[in-house]
UniProtKB/TrEMBL annotation:
<dbReference type="InterPro" id="IPR001228">
    <property type="entry name" value="IspD"/>
</dbReference>
<dbReference type="InterPro" id="IPR029044">
    <property type="entry name" value="Nucleotide-diphossugar_trans"/>
</dbReference>
<comment type="similarity">
    <text>Belongs to the IspD/TarI cytidylyltransferase family. IspD subfamily.</text>
</comment>
<keyword id="KW-0548">Nucleotidyltransferase</keyword>
<dbReference type="InterPro" id="IPR034683">
    <property type="entry name" value="IspD/TarI"/>
</dbReference>
<keyword id="KW-0414">Isoprene biosynthesis</keyword>
<feature type="site" description="Transition state stabilizer">
    <location>
        <position position="2"/>
    </location>
</feature>
<dbReference type="Pfam" id="PF01128">
    <property type="entry name" value="IspD"/>
</dbReference>
<dbReference type="InterPro" id="IPR050088">
    <property type="entry name" value="IspD/TarI_cytidylyltransf_bact"/>
</dbReference>
<feature type="site" description="Transition state stabilizer">
    <location>
        <position position="9"/>
    </location>
</feature>
<protein>
    <recommendedName>
        <fullName>2-C-methyl-D-erythritol 4-phosphate cytidylyltransferase</fullName>
        <ecNumber>2.7.7.60</ecNumber>
    </recommendedName>
</protein>
<dbReference type="GO" id="GO:0019288">
    <property type="term" value="P:isopentenyl diphosphate biosynthetic process, methylerythritol 4-phosphate pathway"/>
</dbReference>
<comment type="function">
    <text>Catalyzes the formation of 4-diphosphocytidyl-2-C-methyl-D-erythritol from CTP and 2-C-methyl-D-erythritol 4-phosphate (MEP).</text>
</comment>
<dbReference type="GO" id="GO:0050518">
    <property type="term" value="F:2-C-methyl-D-erythritol 4-phosphate cytidylyltransferase activity"/>
</dbReference>
<feature type="site" description="Positions MEP for the nucleophilic attack">
    <location>
        <position position="199"/>
    </location>
</feature>
<comment type="pathway">
    <text>Isoprenoid biosynthesis; isopentenyl diphosphate biosynthesis via DXP pathway; isopentenyl diphosphate from 1-deoxy-D-xylulose 5-phosphate: step 2/6.</text>
</comment>
<feature type="site" description="Positions MEP for the nucleophilic attack">
    <location>
        <position position="147"/>
    </location>
</feature>
Length: 226
């Protein structure tokens, strides 16, 4: 595993709390979701269920948000299909990555708001700050895309439910859900992402996440774990 941990990435703690719990807490704290489906390998269902009680973190009038744990598949697309199947009556889906555990609730709410405003597909995006090169199979540079037109895409990615079901009705593979939707010829809208929604993939990422969690005010940290 790139994190260098024996624990599956989603269960690696950041500031003492597993990433999957932080990600779910962020979804609920956004006030934008009515149900959360967590997809994990079969052998981790019991552990995930123990970590993820049904709860409400808003402290307001919002009713508790049910959290369901379901078994995923061999590939990422299989797992997303399992999540879709577990919520067949949904009008919209937000597909989130537990490795983006520090994603601010405000970003999640922005994606949901754009869906409710009528966009069928929405992704958070940040400008690319590095120069990007395309290379061939031998590593030789073949071109330099104009980074002014490039964006780094984050999660959650939001979709009209019927659109995402259609995208997953095929056997195509993609590195993200928007990639499947693009093939249907649907325009995908971007909203401004957030640097805190970075993907915790390497040991350096984990150190950064730990530092950011430690720098949070005590009341902010409590708000996502109570």
């Amino acid at each position: 595993m790139r994190l260098g941990e024996s624990t599956p990435k989603a269960f690696v703690p950041v500031g003492g709390i597993p990433m999957v719990r932080l990600a779910v807490d962020g979804l609920i704290a956004s006030g934008a979701v009515h149900r959360v489906v967590v997809v994990v390998p079969a052998e981790l269902v019991e552990s995930a269920t123990a970590l993820l009680p049904t709860t409400s973190l808003t402290g307001g009038s919002m009713p508790p948000v049910p959290v369901q744990v379901v078994v995923g598949g061999a590939e990422r697309t299989d797992s997303v299909r399992a999540g879709i199947a577990a919520a067949p009556d949904a009008a919209f889906y937000l597909v989130h990555d537990a490795a983006r555990a520090l994603t601010p609730p405000a970003l999640i709410a922005r994606v949901a708001a754009e869906l409710h405003a009528g966009s069928p597909a929405v992704v958070p995006a940040l400008p690319v700050v590095d120069t990007v090169k395309s290379v061939d199979d031998t590593g030789v540079v073949t071109g330099t895309p104009d980074r002014a037109h490039l964006r780094a895409i984050q999660t959650p990615q939001g979709f009209d439910a019927e659109l995402l079901r259609r995208a997953y009705a095929t056997d195509d593979a993609a590195t993200d859900d928007a990639g499947l939707v693009e093939r249907l010829g649907v325009d995908i809208v971007t909203v401004t992402g957030d640097p805190l929604a970075f993907k915790i993939t390497t040991p350096l990422d984990l150190r950064l996440a730990e530092t950011l969690r430690a720098d949070q005010p005590a009341d902010a940290a409590e708000a996502v774990v109570r």
